[in-house]
Fold each of these.
Amino acid sequence: MDEQRLLRPPVEVRYKEELEALKATDTDRKPENWRLSPRAVRTFILGSRTPVSYQGKSVPIGKKYFGNDALVERCIITLAGNRGLMLVGEPGTAKTMLSELLSAAISGVSTNTIQGTAGTTEDMIKYSWNYALLLAKGPSREALVPSPLYVGMEQGLLTRFEEITRTPAEV
Ligand SMILES: Nc1ncnc2c1ncn2[C@@H]1O[C@H](COP(=O)(O)OP(=O)(O)OP(=O)(O)O)[C@@H](O)[C@H]1O
Ligand SMILES: [Mg+2]
């Protein structure tokens, strides 16, 4: 990816070196499918006083979320317990930012995302069909168009659902 041309690089691109340094030096146990241990995820988001030595360099881990450290810990524990995590709050209070940091640290991607809008349908949350392939080949995996949630469940990645309250109640 050409970082120079990106208007706003995703967290995993912007903090690639920090994530690599933390992964290489992480000795704690990781929950299944996690790229980092819960402790290293915390360090990534809340920063470290001492830089991490990695490939002969010292990589400082900056604090990214300012405010309630216990909230960040609660988020990590919730996700480690294999639960969904819902962030509710006033606009501009870093719900999106925190979920991107968590996803990048835990799954290595922050872009496996469903954007909730008034027009969000069930297909966008579950899966839809490529109708040409559906007619030609029947209801096969090939004809199925997976949603981000489907991809997340299949590959063991976190799925972020933005603005869930904007989706129609029945969906
Ligand atoms: N506690 C915080 N620590 C660090 N940065 C913050 C904090 N709160 C807000 N920001 C900054 O404000 C920006 C906007 O926050 P963000 O878009 O994540 O908010 P949000 O809670 O998702 O808002 P909305 O409800 O409108 O979706 C963040 O990208 C970040 O730069
Ligand atoms: Mg948001």
Note: The pocket of adenosine-5'-triphosphate (ligand 1) is lined by residues 65-67, 89, 91-97 (CB under 6 Å).
Amino acid sequence: MTETSVDVAAHDRIATYGRRVLAGGELTREEVLWLLGLENTADRFDLMSWANRVRERFKGDRVHLCSIVNAKAGGCSEDCKFCAQSAFYQTESPRYAFVDPEPVQAAAEEAARNGVTALGLVAAWKGLDEGPMLDEVCARFEELKRSGQVRPDASLGILKSQRVADRLAAAGVECYNHNLETSRRFFPQQCTTHTYDDRLRTIGFLKQAGIRICSGGILGLGETVEDRCDLMFALKEVDPSFVPLNVLNPIPGTPFEKNAPLAPLTILQTVACFRLVLPRAEIMLAGGRTVNLRDLQSLSFLAGASALMVGNYLTTLNQPVEKDLQMLRDLGLRWDGGVSP
Ligand code: SF4
């Protein structure tokens, strides 16, 4: 069999799984592991076409757009080994304290101009407790909410108590990003200053406060296929509204600076499996997509992605927003602030 010829048995098996998810059924861990192990290019495209049907069934032709603003940069006390903002590593990343209102409003105006639904304020620190900093953070969200231009979202790390989550909800935070990053097994190899359970506890506080959950991970840390599968099923338990998928863009100075890049088709195959495990979630391509997927970026929608982070990332540049919007138009997809011609 050539690398591109169709394996009929695999073709039938992929179709069986795809039909089951379309009908509202679920896949087992063993089934997803088998899908993640497909090596034949034709089989991988077969998988992607089923993920595309599942996306169309549950998400239609609308793409959710969001963007972020780095509200406090660098000097983070945590040692996440992929991160340019950790104080543990010598990187070129900028450092500044929590932002004033003006840059946040400017980012909100730009996001709204581009039809972007949500703006997330992201802070490089361990997390938030009650005190003056929480007051300042809440003030920024109240201003953002009052301006009414974008949905105010947050990514502010670990929350120390339920009261902190309740304060954020009262200030207008509608959705909070807190990634599980990877599997429980691999997590200690990428971060030692906090735990998987710290992250799950924060997600519990947020849910209790009525804040929607945005939780995903990062691929290419050196994790195994089993770790990726475990992340999918851990997220299924969390039941997030949004699942941002980042792909490592190795930053000089960080411990993962020499990690080998993932092949674009491996990334797309993984995205397709996330779609089949989490059919109703917004699967979002986020950091690292431009550098890792290159010309195959648009195929991520065929692979089941339904959301896109646009604008620059925290420490790396993205392609211009207009190029992303043109890609969506060319695919016949719509987004909240615009429609395809
Ligand atoms: S990923 Fe977040 S918590 Fe970890 S080092 Fe970077 S900024 Fe800090």
Note: The chain has 13 helices and twelve strands.
Amino acid sequence: MSPLTRKPTFNGGIHPPDNKITRDKEIENLPPLGNLVVPMSQHIGAPAEPIVEEGEEVKRGQKIGKAQGFVSSPVHAPTSGEVTEIGSFSHPSGSEVKGIKIVPDEKDESVDFSGEDPAKLSDDEIIEKIQEAGIVGMGGAAFPTHVKLSPPEDKDIDILIINGAECEPYLTADYRLMLEKPEAIVNGTELIAGLLGVDKVYFGIEDNKPEAREAIERKASGSIDVVELSTKYPQGWEKTLIHALTGRKVPVGGLPLDIGAVVQNVSTVKAVWDGVKHGKPLLERVVTATGTIPDAGNYNVRIGTTWNDLIDQLGGLPKGETAKLIDGGPMMGDTQPDMDTPIVKSTSGVLALGSEPAVEREPSPCIRCGKCVDVCPANLLPTSIYKSVEAGDIDRAEELNATSCCECGSCTYVCPSEIPLVQWIVQGKGEIEMREEEE
Ligand code: SF4
Ligand code: SF4
């Protein structure tokens, strides 16, 4: 058991109401619901390419999209059935991407999952299994996990951090996983630590989840330092988490790898264990369905299930009470214009917000109160960046390190003038990126 005498945290941040109304809801396995739409792009990197044809019968776990290169990830059929369409479908990011529609045959017949004792596998074989299982960062970033666990040779990695913060309001999927599946998470942690050859493993959990911390501690060996973090948003951002736990700072424009750290989210770690030990590809994930959804809870949902089918199963949206649908949490999630959007590998939450919290107000001029500066976890000047972007001065926005913004929305949350600071900053980041691509 770790001596829990300290509660590390970071400078800045906010304390929004946590609204974790589903924290006591056990994870429930849902069967395939309706027709499934499996996007070929559910990760950062090259989209997968379909390897099945319309009319073909597929089984649960069968690979249906092949990775295109190392920074890419394959996709698998989440159930058995017929491929009825290969075309363009809406994606939670708001874009249209290539995808495969499967009409389930209701047999849910699987291919054989052949797992292996990880102790008998070489590092290269483990990495190959992680890629073949289609595992990507499930905390939101969706970076292919096999790439993140293959640091360049010139990077000396000595710390692994497991992110159990789940600092976004409403979300409880990771909390429930830590509570209900601690052994698989700890086994996955030890597997990854061995692969990276690190000396030190921190497991960070906010102090509003004592039951989850106790569950992980009971399974963790002495090599894992389970650390209780102060509850504060955005504690789960990689850079704030690393700094809180290790005192190390990721340089501006740099990555955790640059200071010897790799961070993995708890859902991803469990998927790695399931993929390597049990040979099971990423076909489903735990999603917190919450807000105005009648049967709010934590559900193990097949990838490709549409919002429509999931919400229908959970009682439908109450008439007139829902103003906004968000993939993820209310702070960093993506607003969904379309109920045909599928659940993807990075969907941690299906959030229906009522008219009160989703209401948008007219911004008024900045009163120079400095609150946005005080809360920024990246030590930026949100007000100055927003003014530069508004004035079209992208050079200045770049000088002010706009690209270091993690888009946590803390500045917007505290602004008494209701200025949508994060939207301006995201626009500035996009313009900086576009200019770099043109150069
Ligand atoms: S500027 Fe970016 S990182 Fe800083 S508080 Fe605003 S959204 Fe968060
Ligand atoms: S919080 Fe809003 S009003 Fe205050 S300085 Fe920042 S932008 Fe201006």
Note: The pocket of iron/sulfur cluster (ligand 1) is lined by residues 375-378, 380, 382, 405-411, 421-422, 425 (CB under 6 Å).
